[in-house]
């Protein structure tokens, strides 16, 4: 059992709500942070790879699978996202526009970033890239999850469990560490950056959600997911 369980749903559960059928005005209000968040997350993945100090736990898994299947990390991101969506079924987590865009776009964005961003040899530059990637994961996660149009496949696991009364940062940390272990066994690269990201991504995403969460307006549709 995950530590941090409370008898009643924790206040963080409200961040897991998904506006499944937003009206036109809500779409106009929510799409900009969604797109911005996805772009930031995608480029943060490529930035962390170029830092060569260790990537995020999920990306250790993606690297391991890419190495095993001899394909690009971007393609693996898309395929893993589709597979993870299957785990939503027993959790009764609902798809949203953001879920679909996340699943299909993060991989290509990461590949684009890898094509644009050159390798860095100076240690100071690599430290700077790692710090930028870490900040990007928290900011991007807060933006696209907080817009309420549906979390990505991986974050959907986090928000679905959070909605059942667990603390968001605890759930995120446990999931990230699990992906790290499997990825390492498959040959993914682990470094000091991996440890730093694993320990900070939960609290930073939590902080990002508190800052960028968009409440539902009174006249918005009231069809909400778990």
Describe the structure.
It is a single chain. With 226 residues, this protein is an all-alpha fold. Helices cover 67% and strands 0% of the residues. It is built from nine helices and no strands. The chain has helices spanning 24-51, 57-69, 73-85, 88-91, 97-116, 123-146, 153-162, 168-185, 192-212. The longest helix is centred in the N-terminal third of the chain and has 28 residues, at 24-51. It is globular and about 50 Å long. It starts with 23 loop residues before the first helix and ends in a 14-residue tail after the last helix.
* Rg calc: 17 Å
Helix content: 55-70%
Structural class, by secondary structure, is: mainly alpha
Number of helices: 9
Give a count of the beta strands, DSSP E runs of length 2 or more: 0
What is the rounded distance between the termini?
20 Å
Largest sheet: none
Note poorly predicted spans.
Answer: 1-13, 222-226
What is the mean pLDDT? 83
The rough form would be described as globular
Give the topology string: H per helix, E per strand: HHHHHHHHH
The percent range for strand residues is under 5%
In short:
Helix content is 67%, strand content 0%.
How are the SSEs ordered, and which strands pair?
Blueprint: H1 24-51, H2 57-69, H3 73-85, H4 88-91, H5 97-116, H6 123-146, H7 153-162, H8 168-185, H9 192-212
